[in-house]
Write a structure and sequence with these properties.
By secondary structure, the protein is of the alpha/beta class. The chain has 4 helices and 7 strands; from the N terminus they run E-H-H-E-E-E-E-H-E-E-H. The chain is globular, with a radius of gyration of 17 Å.
């Protein structure tokens, strides 16, 4: 009896650890719930991320973690291109000012990641991409009052 020496294609399903601030949790859950009718796949993805996240007090979220209001530089694994955006709630989204909604595929993928983490995400046109978080600037550093 012969056995195949080919390895079974087994995708690495080990997702990077994510952290979500307890202050952001109620708003994120409400967003996912309200998006369930219009974009169920994206809402499910956000709920999955919330479900696997470590929820912590805002003071315990490290500065290198992508939270709501963080400015993040990430690298697209396919193109090698780096982009810098600010992760915001949908009502604050403004692509001309590089403010990207958490209710987009890239927004959901970035939420809770730390610098150096890589993650797969599916674009709206069903392409699987990898992104790596290069740098995070916390919200408090973005808004100098």
């Amino acid at each position: 009896m012969s056995t195949s020496t080919e390895t079974t294609k087994k995708p690495n399903k080990r997702n990077p650890k994510i952290v979500i601030s307890a202050d952001d949790l109620p708003h994120l859950e409400k967003l996912a719930d309200s998006m369930m009718r219009r974009q169920p796949a994206l809402a499910d993805r956000l709920l999955d991320e919330i479900g696997r996240a470590r929820i912590v007090a805002p003071a315990k979220v490290r500065d290198n973690v992508v939270t709501m209001g963080s400015t993040v530089t990430y690298q697209d694994g396919m193109s090698g291109q780096e982009k810098t955006i600010t992760l915001v709630y949908p009502e604050e989204a403004d692509i001309t000012n590089l403010c990207v909604s958490v209710m987009t595929p890239i927004g959901v993928a970035l939420l809770g990641l730390s610098e150096g983490a890589s993650f797969y995400w599916d674009t709206r046109d069903d392409q699987r991409r990898t992104l790596t978080v290069m740098e995070v600037t916390p919200p408090s550093a973005n808004h100098k009052d």
